[in-house]
Amino acid sequence: MNKYNPVVSIAKGLGIIFVLMGHFIYIKEIKTFIYLFHMPLFFFISGYLFNDHGIDELPKFVVRKIKRLYLPFVICNIIALPFHNWLCEIGVYSIDGLFTNVKDTLKYIFKIFLCIKMEDIVAPLWFLPILMTVTIIYYLIRLFVRRFKKTELMTLMILLLGYIASFILIYIGRTSGLWRAMILVGTGAWIFGLGHAYKEYEEKISVYCHNYPTVIACFIAELVLSGFIDINMIQMRFSNPVIFTVCALFGINVIIFTSKKLWNRRTRLSGALKHLGNNSLVILEWHYWGALITTIIQHNIYKASIKGIVYYNGSAKIAWFSLYVLTGFGLPLIISGLKQKKRAE
Known about the structure:
By secondary structure, the chain is mainly α. The chain has two domains: 6-266, no CATH class; 279-345, no CATH class. It is 74% helix and 0% strand. The model has no long low-confidence stretch (mean pLDDT 92).
């Protein structure tokens, strides 16, 4: 795999499907299974795509990451701000969150620019500033370790220290505010580093890990672990350092193996997944807006109060889940299509 290899896009496509299922599914067991690996997958892929070439161009690198990761986070939050009070009034947000004066609103906007606050309608974008920080830290580590012979080992050792420090923060109860961001960076950087190490040794690893017996064993183990382990990165539920890494790698191995097999077959399914993967950022940005459409339809049919961006009334849960998926994917893909059409003009 490399940046332009469709296998990467298919893996991202599968990943973004799991992200939406995790947000929309009403079956707890499936949600728990998905959360074992779906966000680590994106850190892993990002690490895989990290390129050591041009390692001396730090300012250019930082500017690229700001444009790619920080600006979408800020812009999507600013777009959501005019709807904030309306979302409070209809029940999507807590009524306590109403903006009542200019001063509080400006403070809130300032915190968005600092990545301290974000609108719930774009809450999945927490991943972007964390990934930006992880990528820049990883870049600096690579600058430091290149003087040593075993750069990959040295990099992983440094990342492992940060990973262990993250769990120490969790165990002593420092899991809010800046501490929470540090934990997410520490855990994300570890998986990011494993992704880059995988790229370096992909051929050897594939011999042992990318075969049906190993992948089936990983999948079964993941299913079993999901019955005992509850992981949610943004909610600071990591179990322990070993379990978090094992669950992440088992799920990632299944996804990468599946992506390679799908691309080898060159079916319509692989083409569709590749398209989703290429639009994964747009889907991440806009899928909750699509879900809101379904929630408002549900609200008007059942005449019940709205209790969040995604919730279920009545017994037709499968039908509503299907509509959540349709609008969750549909709106972002329409927006992506319109953007591409505008660029073509």
